[in-house]
């Protein structure tokens, strides 16, 4: 009987255990836009720290600290791989707060058009991402 089940520890067994396939991430236009929005938001916070605070001590603190704080808040409460379980309302509040903070940096620097365009693009990107996550 060749087709009889065998123990996986039998000598001469050529059975190699397979690992489950990891799902492949799709790269699409919305994902690229989402990445660019996040990167621009972090760079906006760093640029704000650079222009607003006197160099070297307070400026370096805000150039590094503001984007780092925003990235950590996003990771802990909004990221798809977040270690803290957050409901939809909590994720929305965190994302809105981060987008408004990055948009407000441009308004405080005297470029309200850049801030407004950023907030609108980030809102559209956030809505599309939200719809995909809840579908």
Automatic annotation (TrEMBL):
Chain residue ranges for the region called Disordered: 1-22
Coiled-coil positions: none
Keyword list, A-Z: Membrane, Transmembrane, Transmembrane helix
Keyword Membrane: yes
InterPro entries given in the database record: DUF2568
Chain ranges passing through the membrane: 32-51, 57-76, 88-107, 113-130
Name of the protein described by the UniProt record: 4-amino-4-deoxy-L-arabinose transferase
Species assigned in the record: Curtobacterium salicis
Upper taxonomic lineage: Bacteria, Bacillati, Actinomycetota, Actinomycetes, Micrococcales
């Amino acid at each position: 009987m060749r087709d009889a089940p065998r123990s996986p520890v039998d000598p001469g067994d050529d059975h190699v255990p397979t690992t489950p396939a990891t799902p492949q991430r799709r790269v699409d236009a919305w994902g690229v836009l989402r990445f660019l929005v996040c990167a621009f938001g972090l760079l906006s916070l760093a640029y704000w720290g650079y222009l607003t605070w006197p160099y070297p001590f307070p400026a370096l603190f805000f150039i590094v600290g503001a984007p780092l704080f925003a990235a950590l808040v996003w990771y802990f409460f909004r990221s798809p791989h977040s270690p803290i379980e957050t409901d939809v309302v909590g994720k929305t509040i965190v994302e809105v707060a981060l987008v408004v903070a990055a948009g407000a940096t441009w308004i405080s620097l005297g470029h309200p058009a850049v801030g407004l365009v950023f907030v609108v693009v980030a809102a559209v990107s956030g809505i599309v991402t939200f719809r995909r996550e809840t579908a």
